[in-house]
Design a protein that fits this description.
single chain, set domain protein methyltransferase, domain 1, 9 helices, 19% strand
Length: 292
């Protein structure tokens, strides 16, 4: 497989510090569990990797308690992502007094998204609906900024983080559902798992979010989960990368960030567009990507 270029590459904004030991200690001290997994830099990208041999499918790798997560649930006419943005900004404003201070300091300064592309570059994707959705995010973000009592640059920072790292949750006891930021677990990279794989994310009634091994793992194997199963349109809009499949049934998947994708479109546009397998406006009508 060729080198991966994911959202944790330098181009997309790495963590402020490569040391996430403090996050692991905080999660453990709060009643969580950090098992045979560690954040590591490998092959030019950051991810969570297994640290021991013989880990079986379904075995917990990481358990993050409710008190270590930031949540946003729909309410008062606002969407979950709006509420999550508000929560993140509040903790950021609290500075060193916030119990999430170490987590917030670890977050990247920005996350490149498809909406950053010019109209001309978007048109090279041959996906009018996708281009429309990307540009529509600017309008939604402007409205969001007007509703927040913060500088726009801070609102945009929080929106990019919540859009690209937010994980859906559902509280069976209260019936509440929304988006959450889950420290350390949000370093796991995206992979669509085989249909017979163990579910990678398990949510318990007490709000604990658990990352499990999807398959048997050995030391050095990567622990992943699927951010979405909606294909490259959603990956590009909300996460800033795409999964390109080479010709052939058993071909490897190449994960490429926006910078790499732009270069590929310049070098071999027709082939790259075909590999993206984006829906055209004739195939299906796209839903505007204002928010999750």
């Amino acid at each position: 497989m060729s080198a991966l270029h994911l959202i944790f590459t330098a181009a997309a904004g790495t963590l402020q510090s490569l040391d996430v030991k403090a996050l692991a200690e905080w999660i453990s001290a709060s009643g969580g569990y950090v098992g045979p997994v560690a954040a590591q830099q490998r092959g030019g990208y950051r991810g969570l990797f297994c640290t021991q041999d013989g880990v079986r499918a379904g075995e917990p790798l990481l358990a993050v308690p409710r008190c270590c997560t930031l949540r946003g649930a729909a309410g008062k006419g606002k969407r979950p992502i709006e509420m999550l943005i508000t929560s993140l900004l509040a903790e950021r404003d609290a500075g060193a007094t916030s119990e999430f201070a170490q987590y917030i300091e670890s977050l990247p300064a920005s996350v490149p998204l498809l909406r950053d592309w010019s109209t001309a570059r978007l048109n090279r994707l041959d996906a009018p609906d996708l281009a429309f959705d990307a540009l529509s995010q600017h309008e939604w973000l402007a409205r969001l900024g007007e509703s927040q009592d913060h500088d726009f640059k801070h609102v945009e920072w929080a929106e990019r983080l919540c859009r690209s790292r937010g994980i859906a949750y559902s509280d069976a006891e209260s019936g509440e559902s929304g988006l959450q930021l889950v420290p350390l677990l949000d370093l796991a990279n995206h992979r669509v798992q085989p249909s017979d794989a163990h579910p990678p994310l398990v949510e318990y009634e007490d709000g604990v979010t658990v990352l499990c091994a999807c398959t048997d793992l050995e030391a050095g194997d990567e622990a992943t989960f699927a951010y979405t199963e909606e294909g490259n349109a959603r990956l590009l809009l909300d996460y800033g990368f795409a999964a390109l499949k080479a010709p052939g049934v058993d071909a490897d998947i190449e994960y490429v960030d926006l910078e790499g994708l732009a270069a590929m479109l310049e070098e071999s546009r027709q082939e790259t567009v075909a590999r993206l397998q984006l829906p055209s406006c004739e195939e299906e009508e796209s839903e505007p990507s204002e928010a999750k």
